[in-house]
Amino acid sequence: xxxxxxxxxxxxxxxxxxxxxxxxxxxxxxxxxxxxxxxxxxxxxxxxxxxxxxxxxxxxxxxxxxxxxxxxxxxxxxxxxxxxxxxxxxxxxxxxxxxxxxxxxxxxxxxxxxxxxxxxxxxxxxxxxxxxxxxxxxxxxx
Length: 142
Fold this sequence. Notes:
It is a single chain. The protein is mostly helical. About 55% of the residues lie in helices and about 10% in strands. The chain is built from five helices and five strands, in the order ββββαβαααα. It has helices at about 35-45, 60-75, 80-115, 125-135, 135-140, and strands at about 5, 10-15, 15-20, 30, 55. Helix 2 runs antiparallel to helix 3 (about 80-115). It is flat, with a radius of gyration of 20 Å. The N and C termini lie far apart (about 50 Å). Residues about 1-10 and about 10-15 have low confidence and may be disordered.
């Protein structure tokens, strides 16, 4: 990574800070924040969600939260208390991944339609709405 320097496990280029996968594999954010800002935020109990050059990965955040719940269940010797919220977070992450895959499929269809307009495949507005606004994809595919 030419032209970059590592600072406390973060790779930085001027004002842009990005977590390095070797030191922070959680994939919760694309981009990072200044190490002194991270330290100050932690000391003051502040969580920052996004910002310029720092966008949240919802899938990464939900999976990280689920992993932390499972770790707490292991540490306390019981999964009963954390089972429901951990499963919810895992299922929601899987739903977001599936929706991303479906969105890519829609984009592929749209590109194909531009190449072969005479053989266009129509994507209904109902399907577009269900992808973006609904949680029950099975119900909306009827």
